[in-house]
Amino acid sequence: MIVELVTFKLPATTTREEVFEKFARTAETWRQNPDLVRKYYLFDAVNGVAGGVYLWRARADAEKWHGADFRSRVRDIYGAEPESRFFETPIVVDCLGGEVVDHSEHPAR
Predict the structure, then answer these.
(1) What fold does the segment set 2-102 form as a domain?
(2) 26-43 burial, b if ≥16 CB within 10 A, otherwise e?
(3) Which of 79, 87, 98, 108 could lock 3 by a disulfide, CB 3.0 to 4.6 Å apart?
(4) Is the pTM of this model over 0.85?
(5) Average pLDDT for residues 92-99, to the nearest whole number?
(6) Domain boundaries, the chain
(7) Cα separations in angstroms, 21 against 3, 42, 100
């Protein structure tokens, strides 16, 4: 599994309500993504930063969905260039599901 952390600086005049409305507009599209395991939307009002935490099965999935078209959409919607960081995620603790998912024996693809 791969966690991708995507962040971008928001224009100074952007309000919390505007950001959350934009999040809500894109949520259904992400819910339908066959390669995405989970997504968390992020908002930091103090530092004017937003983004998302994505859990993918493989880095290739992240790269497939977060290419030039994605970057262009983020610029169009939020007015900022997104930055991505990737992390191999060998173990996931799922408290809601009541399980620990261990992928440590299987290298990330």
Answers:
(1) Alpha-Beta Plaits (3.30.70)
(2) eeeeeeeeeebbebebbe
(3) 87
(4) yes
(5) 91
(6) 2-102
(7) 24, 13, 33
